[in-house]
Specification:
Blueprint lengths: L2 H7 L13 H12 L10 E6 L2 H10 L8 E8 L14 H18 L3 E5 L4 H7 L6 E10 L17 H4 L4
Antiparallel strand pairs: 1-2, 2-4, 3-4
The structure holds flavin mononucleotide.
Flavin mononucleotide binds next to strand 3.
């Protein structure tokens, strides 16, 4: 399958079946994150797999965007490990963790697993609920599971602006 076909078939899944992702499938999704490029290859990503009843209840209490996903990945960066640009201390962690999340989202799609990228959460609540080390910052969640039989893309999924609006040849 061409990667563009995978990119175009993916949509944000917001209604899941009860079926958990088999562990070998989940391992492939996590492996896709492991091989992601990161600034200076510092690999600051720290990924927590939320699957226990307790962890899923916690995350659903923090954000409605966990929906009914049976697995939620919590993607953090170790800020002591992330690359900081010397001249101005700019930090690559949000980009690094986004690439990792994107890799995992697309590998999930390739394996028939639905996903939804989530940033609508209170970071401090996540830090407190999961007792994250003080140098960890939670950037994203990735809901994972099999789409329910009735799940459909949100109508906004189909709204993409023309390429001329976002790309300029200069
Ligand atoms: C960085 C980022 C944060 C997002 N946060 C949320 C979120 O908190 N809740 C949610 O339901 N969807 C969230 N989404 C999904 C977007 O709403 C969705 O990707 C966009 O509307 C396009 O729809 P599609 O994914 O179906 O193509 C997020 C997506 C990205 C890339």
């Amino acid at each position: 399958m061409d990667i563009l076909d995978i990119l175009k078939s993916r949509y944000s899944v917001r209604d899941y079946s009860d079926r958990q992702i088999p562990s070998d499938i989940l391992e492939k999704i996590l492996e896709a994150g492991r091989v992601a490029p990161t600034a200076k290859n510092q690999q600051p990503q720290r990924v927590f797999v939320l699957q226990s009843k307790e962890a899923i209840e916690k995350i659903r209490g923090i954000t409605p965007s966990a929906y009914n996903a049976p697995t939620v990945l919590l993607i953090c960066a170790d800020m002591d490990v992330a690359w900081h640009r010397t001249r101005d201390s700019w930090c690559a962690a949000p980009i690094d963790t986004s690439i990792v999340t994107c890799h995992m989202m697309l590998e999930a799609e390739a394996l028939g697993v639905g996903s939804c990228w989530v940033c609508a959460f209170d970071a401090q609540k996540v830090i407190d609920a999961f007792d994250l080390p003080e140098n960890y910052y939670p950037y994203s969640l990735l809901d994972l599971g099999y789409a329910s039989d009735t799940c459909e893309p949100n109508p906004r999924h189909f709204e993409r602006v023309p390429i001329e609006d976002t790309v300029k040849y200069i």
